[in-house]
Amino acid sequence: MARFNTQLVHGLPVHDNDTGAVNPPIYNSSTYTFPFVGASPRYDYARSGNPTRDFLEQQIAQLEHGTRGFAFASGLAAIHAVLSIFKPGDRIVAGDNVYGGSYSQLNDHFTRWGLQLTTVNTSDDFERLERAISGNGDTAPAKAVYFETITNPLLQVNDVNRIAAIAHRYGALVIVDNTFVTPYNQQPLDLGADVVLHSATKYLAGHSDVIAGLVVTSSEDLAERIYFAQNRLGGILPPQECDAVRRGIQTLALRMDRQQKNASAVAHYLLKHPLVSKVHYPGLGEGGDRELAAKGLKGAGGVLSFEVKEGVDPAVVLNNLKVFRLAVSLGAVESLAELPARMTHFEMPREERLKVGITDELIRLSIGIEDVDDLIEDLGQALEKAYEALNDHQTIDGFDQQIDKLLS
Ligand SMILES: *Cc1c(COP(=O)(O)O)cnc(C)c1O
């Protein structure tokens, strides 16, 4: 059987093409002819199935080691389809710092449809997690646990294996958003997850040019339920977009290798910077690699975040970046920077935000595939501008010497 990198490039042919074209065709057809009345052709109407989509769906199922894959018009459409398999009264336990749009879909949409929601920290307090899942005798056990492998923007690592073991004790399904990690760094289904999903907008497509979502199931029963939701709710990914994601996936490993290498170098640079008080990047520090491996991760990904010291204005840093683009989203070839408190997480009440550790000084970086020295120089000059913008009487002890040492 083909190995992972070969799977990225070739996928699984859908056997629809005898022209010799090396790329699968893009079928712009909403409907398909029946050979005769009463026939049941493989394709009849493109909401139900399309060969271009089939290619991508088979490929993601293969990469995530699942039974079947499904492509949706966005990550949130994928999540919507997955959560729609539950019914009123069912309780879902969700990680307490999942993607804002996912949280809002659960909290503002699905609770209106009768789902109950319990949020809890899924990365370090397993006793509390178990109480939340079991219902602790007060309510029925949860029907599902929903979390992200690496959280945003603080990059906490969730232990899929451990969470799945607890959830399965109470019969709860384990749904993992693997957007930040990708199957290149971890295949959650191998660690006990039942459903894995992606905002393919990010690393899988990888070029900031398409919005897409993917879902992979671990069993045929779940696949049937997700297929029903895909076909009946109708949030499918159009063929052009399917092809854009397919093309992105071909270079996933190459991009991720460079992004991780760059991200690690940037994280180590920031750790030593006198204006930086904290750096969040999985596996940073001694024994970090072992810690990641223990949680089943082959790499830490390309997103990191850091906090500037009190008094330093993070907006000045961001407004002075030249190589990094000031933008939300992540996982693409170009480096992006943003201020969670005022951009990706502005909807979160400040108190809640601070409680989960998203401070006003926190800057998030999505590291691209540029020359890392350009990224580091860019951050250096922007931090220097922020230093110059400090009040005259406000200085940071030894700043100049520390900067000199860093640059030497
Ligand atoms: C972006 C993102 C989503 C939502 O995906 P869209 O493609 O924007 O709908 C969900 N989860 C995570 C972790 C994300 O980063």
UniProtKB/TrEMBL annotation:
Modified residues (N6-(pyridoxal phosphate)lysine): 202
Record carries keyword Iron-sulfur: no
Superkingdom of source: Bacteria
Protein name: Cystathionine beta-lyase
Keywords per UniProt: Lyase, Pyridoxal phosphate
Entry GO terms, CC: cytoplasm
Cofactor: pyridoxal 5'-phosphate
GO terms, biological process: cysteine biosynthetic process via cystathionine; methionine biosynthetic process; transsulfuration
GO terms assigned for molecular function: cystathionine gamma-lyase activity; cystathionine gamma-synthase activity; pyridoxal phosphate binding
Family: Belongs to the trans-sulfuration enzymes family.
